[in-house]
Automatic annotation (TrEMBL):
Pfam families, per database record: AA_kinase, ACT, ACT_9
Keywords tagged on the record: Amino-acid biosynthesis, ATP-binding, Kinase, Lysine biosynthesis, Nucleotide-binding, Transferase
Family annotation (InterPro entries): AceGlu_kinase-like_sf, ACT-like_dom_sf, ACT_Aspartokinase, ACT_dom, AKii-LysC-BS, Asp/Glu/Uridylate_kinase, Asp_kin_monofn, Asp_kinase
Family: Belongs to the aspartokinase family.
Broad class of enzyme this protein falls into: transferase
One GO MF term: aspartate kinase activity
UniProt pathway annotation: Amino-acid biosynthesis; L-methionine biosynthesis via de novo pathway; L-homoserine from L-aspartate: step 1/3; Amino-acid biosynthesis; L-threonine biosynthesis; L-threonine from L-aspartate: step 1/5; Amino-acid biosynthesis; L-lysine biosynthesis via DAP pathway; (S)-tetrahydrodipicolinate from L-aspartate: step 1/4
Domain of life per record: Bacteria
The name this protein goes by in its record: Aspartokinase
Amino acid sequence: MSLFVQKYGGTSVGSIERIEAVADKVAASRAQGHDMVVVLSAMSGETNRLIDLAQQIQDKPDPREMDVLVSTGEQVTIALLSMALKKRGYDACSYTGGQVKILTDNAHTKARIQRIDVERMRRDLDAGCVVVVAGFQGVDDEGNITTLGRGGSDTTGVALAASLDATECQIYTDVDGVYTTDPRVVDSARRLDRITFEEMLEMASLGSKVLQIRAVEFAGKYKVPLRVLSTFEEGGGTLISLDEDDEMEEPVVSGIAFNRDEAKLTIRGVPDTPGVACRILAPVGAENIEVDVIVQNISAVDGTTDFTFTVHRNDLAKAREVLERVAEELGAKEVISDDKIAKVSIVGVGMRSHANVASRMFSCLGGDNINIQMITTSEIKISVIIDERYLELAVRALHSEFELSEPRAAS
Ligand code: ADP
Ligand code: ASP
Ligand code: MG
């Protein structure tokens, strides 16, 4: 007998009919004798609706109150699924994050899980009960409700699987696995049977929202077997492979990720002297704003330089405010910003052993007249910042350049 943690996303529980269908799937696994823990998201659109309600009252509501609000969506679906399971004759019990208990730090709206008490769940499982847990939420050590960031139910699923030592964590969603790129943008995107954990980590961090990045980090850290599958179609989905000495030879590029959520800031004419990068970025960091791609130009003849970096679009206004202050202190010429940019990344562990991947990427984009504004690379990824208007064109062109529609073969 195995223990499975199954997480169902918003679309999968988006209506009563769909919740009934999820209950059928869970019941079928239970009927095979498996112990079942089910993690649910809110109904699709619900979390956005709640955020919108808050914003009708205040632009930047108190994060603690936001968590009290947005965590309600998941409380609805867990109760409904438990009812649907009971109707089918299965014992089931629903729990909020605070009841389980999923202890987090107190970083409201982006809390991190610190510990999970498994005792209550174990007791239920031993008694043959299906445990249904609200995703995306926890509680801090003072009993305040916290949430784990958008897409956080994935992380709840993996964290529960880790703490219960589950056979597998299965992420059920509205696509039948992880694709070479978002199948909603490239029709010919291909589903991968397996993807290495490292690649999945990069894809998630570079914008593929099929899995929340923290969920992938958790799976890697605690060696949780993780699979992405469709709620609506049968199939084996995609296994996130933790097997380090996987025999399969890797293609150069495995996938393409993209992200429309970035904005770019440039501070022009800053003195090109030691310590200046820190004087620009430290105040930005002090405001809890994460900086992504950074480029410093070479020095101009007058000993000044331009410094450009990207941040999340939601942080642009705040970052600009900070930078205007820094510009005054440093006697810089001006601050300019652009929120019509996007980041496109190619990812693949095979890049390690292949030269010329970058030039192939750049010449492909150049061939389509797409100007590259910034570049950043690591061992297994190359990211470029481009004009947002060309994002889909770039993703399609690169998908075809690296022959990602073709069956995965050694190259
Ligand atoms: P859920 O509500 O089930 O958590 P999400 O919307 O968070 O679902 O994630 C699934 C979506 O991720 C898919 O509908 C797809 O558009 C998107 N996606 C982005 N990149 C990829 C990729 N490489 N493979 C599969 N899906 C992807
Ligand atoms: N409901 C939350 C969100 O929409 C968490 C999740 O679905 O994973 O972000
Ligand atoms: Mg999701």
